[in-house]
Description:
3 helices, elongated, 177 residues, 36% strand, 9-stranded mixed β-sheet, single chain
Amino acid sequence: MTGRLGSRGAWAGLTGAIVxxxxxxxxxxHLIAVRFVPGVAPAIDLALGxxxxxxxxxxxxPLWSRVRVRGPMLRVRFGWLARTDxxxxxxxxVAVVAGAAVPExxxxxxxxxxxxxxxxxxxxxxxxxxxxxxxxxxVVRAVSVHTLVIGMADxxxxxxxxxxxxxxxxxxxxxxx
Length: 177
């Protein structure tokens, strides 16, 4: 089972705005550096360009995110920004949420709930877990979560597939791929 995380339009728009601001910032810093410290301006351009490119790539990375079942685990990746592996046997409830129940766009962690939302106007799948799992977000921050809310392009189909995989894992059937 593989699923795509929601409509990419809203996140692509956000990424485009951040890239534009980053390019403008690099241009302004370049012009200031050329005017006041021309000898080190190329080094400043190189350093700022590398950092800006890295940040832009990290922010764009959720555009190719997926949810996959790999063996007995559900692997959730929100680009380079967040990830977690959930044992299928620990999933006790899978539900589709929509409307006001879908959190805001982006990554959020609060009260043991990890939300990964590309499109706040779309639907999401809420996974309730029997035991907390480790998750990483913002590249290096580690948290323990007992609920995941994942914005999905095909939430009903994803909910059914994850529920079936979790039932198979709980019954002891072979779920390796």
